[in-house]
Amino acid sequence: EDQVTQSPEALRLQEGESSSLNCSYTVSGLRGLFWYRQDPGKGPEFLFTLYSAGEEKEKERLKATLTKKESFLHITAPKPEDSATYLCAVQARVSGGYNKLIFGAGTRLAVHP
Amino acid sequence: EAQVTQNPRYLITVTGKKLTVTCSQNMNHEYMSWYRQDPGLGLRQIYYSMNVEVTDKGDVPEGYKVSRKEKRNFPLILESPSPNQTSLYFCASSPRQGRNTGELFFGEGSRLTVL
Fold it and tell me: Which residue, among B7, B102, B12, B110, has the nearest Cα to B48 in the 3D structure?
């Protein structure tokens, strides 16, 4: 069964304390892996797409990497404004040519001054 | 401003009273989708639409209906809501087809409570 698991569920960091969030997946026929940021009371906001193992994408203090079984979202020297829930989603090919998107439950990140 | 607009944002209703959550996007996107978000379960797809008059079931379609008569609008209909449909609902659209439909623009969400 296709599955996406994110860890940890919650993470508390001090400002400037770098860390990584994990997204592990088991899907047949990976088409792409996507990272989103979700602020309280808001819809998710798209961050990155990764297509193949070894690929990396960067945006400000965030860097996403991909292996054959997992993806990491590295946060370097985080600031309080990086506090949010980070969602990982995997796109898998299903019958009929449709690409199904499967979301993980997310990691709640809190960065304290 | 490019956006996906959902209404209502908050709704409390009673079991069995039909309701519609509207969704409109102003980006001329072909792909649109509805998700529900529940604690610990992540986002689960209810229905999606690849284009006008083309809709299909997602993972949790029971109790919901959709229609896509115009490109910009994709309403979600609950014919007879039940308490297990209490959830946070998101509409999303994508400018791309195929493998890139994972790059979604989401609305602000509609929090529905069914008593």
Answer: B102
